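Technical appendix A lists one of the benchmark inputs used to test multi-chain prediction within the project. The record comprises two sequence entries:
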Amino acid sequence: MAIIQETRDRVASLGEKYKYGFVTDIEMERAPRGLNEDTVRLISSKKGEPDWMLEWRLSAYRRWRQMHEPNWARVHYPKIDYEQAYYYAAPKNAEQPKSLEEVDPKLLETYKKLGIPLHEQMLLAGVAVDAVFDSVSVATTFKAKLAEAGVIFCPMSEAIRDHGDLVRKYLGSVVPVTDNFFATLNSAVFSDGSFVYVPKGVRCPMELSTYFRINASETGQFERTLIIADEGSYVSYLEGCTAPMRDENQLHAAVVELVALDHAEIKYSTVQNWYPGDEQGKGGIYNFVTKRGDCRGRGAKISWTQVETGSAITWKYPSCILRGDDTVGEFYSIAIANHFQQADTGTKMIHLGRNTRSRIISKGISAGHAQNTYRGLVSVHPRAANARNHTQCDSLLIGKECGAHTVPYIESRNSTARVEHEATTSKIAEDQLFYCLSRGIGQEEAVALIVNGFCREVLQQLPMEFAVEAQKLVGISLEGSVG
Amino acid sequence: MSLLEIENLHVASQGKEILKGLSLVIREGEVHAIMGPNGSGKSTLSYTLAGRQGYEITAGRILYRGEDLALFAPEERSAKGIFLALQYPVEIPGVTTMNFLKAALNAQRRARGETEFDALSILRLVRETASGLNIPEEMLRRALNVGFSGGEKKRLEILQMALFKPSLTILDETDSGLDIDALKLVADGVNALRAPDRAMLVITHYQRLLDYIVPHRVHVLANGRIVAEGGSELAHELEAKGYAGFVKDAA
């Protein structure tokens, strides 16, 4: 408990700087430190998983033991000691609540502080939240309405039990167990996450939303999300992330897999606001995330929109495999790095089918001593006749100590393909700032205004209620960047 | 009571002294014009009044309602009722004009401890004011000054003046780059805001604007000092004789 008190005091002393920096005082149930086969077995048995799932995890674990952490990204951090972390933490008494009344009021209080409306507000907002608190999903709402439409939206652990066939068919089919160091680690130890299945021809009647939150100290959070949009269906999914402030760095390695069958569309939006570390670069989340969508059927569409303002390290490349003919992939990104944050983010558009189209708009903002890298791959395979890509990468620099880097990879093996790349780098001009100031708009508000303008094309892609929050976040994350 | 008192003002920018002992008094309700050739210090004066970074007062002072203006940041001056219409209004991509106006109006109100306008009343206020200045609604939806013509940019400056209702307006070469129709439109906008409790400082190179905004006093600025003063007839004298005579006097 001492640690929690200390953190609280620290949060109090830092005041409003990181609004989400509070710790919920709930007894945690943890696996022992470190990672071995027993840890994997424990996680699997805690969740009452079938044997095939345990075997899947164990194969991932054995593979992971032979893998090396990648080092090609433009991010620098001290070596992570994987034996010192906890791989499972769950709030006690949080198992299987049958209604919101059964949920620990302290948890609900936490969600309230995060601004997530769980009760009647949810009806008004029309958002179903599958809230993940550390590792166990504690509340799932709107199930009835979704069930009526035939949509399955539940915690991954529940899906493994109740919809085993679907999970077994699709899990790891986009991001294979062997994909990369962090994805393989996730496959071994993932604790929970969301599962969505939208049946043929169904337009999901509401935006689906999950808030992830890392609470326990020194706990890696490994969510696993799987979304399947069957033929002709549509779903929009929102993911919001925050984490409390802590001195030590916390590891976060999530995997998100999207599968869009014939003429299905998936829109996946993220607002990531993990604790970025303090102004000296101490603490903060290490965010190593693998997100990939597979436009498996003809005419399918997958659209990623991300607003990345948090984390000390961001390593994230939400990608689209344009497998079916006439498929469309989109990536809209705002990445803000302030103080000592490092972001290496971008996308991969893999054109396999004919007449496939992709669009990339990336807005990188660097301030303080931060380094912000766009890293992207556009790959056109021999069969992908008439493939089209347009990429626009804009970087905005605030101050003299930060950096912006653009690393585009373009591979084209079909002569009918057309790939365009545009890039700009600019600074907030002194005359723009003065113009705002002379009209009564203070320095920080002026920066937020100008940066929001810079990001507008991407902000417009977000669902309305998220866009407002994202705009505020843009302002908050750049506080103290000028002056 | 005098609204603005500039006493023996010396201002340097980038290590070079530009204003060299300028004095000027403006009372409420008065319209003053400052005329001068290029490089005489006209823009330096307007930036110094607005508090732009990089313009350092090395001697003298500026009193606004009896307070030393140097103590206040640009945004505080704005909230206190000082408005500078710029010669070259700045483009801010992605920020709609309406949004910008809302941010500015509410920031000023906040600073004065007044309640902020809600989105709807701002919309109504801006629309009403804009239509009086022949500013189409479509312009308010475009990004601030991006792709605006010279005339549109200047009209937008006047729209801001009309919305903010400043006690002291400084018009920095608002006439530059305007054809005669646009000039009249701008002048009408400015004249509509003349009031006993408001003052204006019209900075211009040419007498033309002063045919439409007739000032109480005209000051000739040369080499960082006021070298001649008079009524509105002085502007015509300048137009006839040119600046050469005045500038030589100053040297």
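Chain A touches chain B through 23 residues (CB under 8 Å). The two ends of chain A are 39 Å apart (CA to CA). Comparable benchmark entries are summarised in Table A2.
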